[in-house]
Specification:
By secondary structure, the chain is mostly helical. The protein contains 11 helices and 2 strands.
Length: 284
């Protein structure tokens, strides 16, 4: 079967979404709640910091490990995953450009709009500082490796396993809700991004959760428009985190960014209704 001229190979073999999502939630949550508990021990010393950091990073590895277990014994799935890293032929280049620029342009535009409401132009300064800590790991390392590890799970197995049962719109909404819930234990870990967002105020924590929905819709749109290319999802994810940390946006600018992403997501859905509301993909 084809979507926008892109062959969807072996997608019907992604048959275990319940198994994938159950263990991709249970295992990280065990490690992350453990990391959160240890990070709140006082006095907090380097030993506790190291333990909490290792637990948090181990939890991040869990979904890709689950995907690997589900894929490794099925030759059709292994072949399908390998082929989707470099499936650039017949893919329109502008989708890769969109993957690179949607998130940085959206935060810059949001900051520009915030100036109309009296917020500081200092938001555009590249400070070299980060708004959160990642324990013993450099923040720049987590901003790169976390998207890579996550998308090697979500877009090797997770998304397609939902897509075999639901249309793309429902798949994106379900995954967006799941992904928001999946992040919740990270808010218990001292100085982590989600923890700092929650401490900033409930409205900013809510904005983080809401922002995931248009973000996932746009990412999945690019993913399927590029023939389920895994690299395009990784690029989109990296730019989302990196450029929001590169500048110094006011928390309210991030709310504006969410609004802009929602508008763009609605436009994309209206323009590409056939892609989003096509029935679940049939067995080939």
């Amino acid at each position: 079967m084809k979507t926008s001229g892109i062959q969807l190979t072996a997608i019907d073999n992604y048959k275990n979404p319940k198994l994938f999502y159950f263990f991709s939630t249970l295992i990280p949550w065990i490690f992350w709640f453990g990391a959160g508990y240890i990070s709140r021990i006082t006095p907090y010393n380097d030993t506790y910091l190291s333990i909490a950091s290792v637990l948090a990073f181990t939890g991040l590895l869990a979904p890709i490990a689950v995907a690997f277990v589900l894929i490794r014994k099925q030759p059709a799935l292994r072949k399908d995953v390998r082929s989707r890293f470099f499936n650039f032929r017949n893919v329109k280049p502008h989708y890769f450009l969109l993957a690179c620029f949607i998130m940085p342009v959206s935060i810059l535009l949001a900051q520009a709009i915030s100036l109309l409401f009296g917020y500081s132009p200092a938001q555009f300064i590249i400070t070299g500082n980060f708004t959160f800590s990642s324990g013993i790991f450099p923040v720049w390392f987590l901003l790169i490796i976390a998207p890579v590890l996550e998308e090697l799970a979500w877009h090797t197995y997770g998304t397609d396993s939902l897509r075999t049962k639901f249309n793309l719109f429902t798949t994106s909404l379900l995954f967006g809700i799941y992904w928001g819930i999946w992040h919740l234990p990270l808010s218990t870990i001292r100085d982590y991004y989600q923890s700092n967002v929650v401490e900033t105020g409930w409205i900013y924590g809510l904005n983080f959760l809401v922002s995931i929905l248009p973000y996932v819709i746009l990412m999945n749109w690019l993913y399927y428009k590029t023939g389920r290319n895994i690299l395009v999802a990784i690029i989109f994810h990296i730019t989302a985190g990196f450029f929001n940390e590169l500048f110094a946006p006011h928390p309210n600018s991030k709310i504006i960014q969410t609004m802009l992403l929602c508008i763009l997501a609605v436009i994309v859905i209206i323009k590409d209704k056939a892609l989003f509301f096509r029935k679940p993909l049939p067995v080939n």
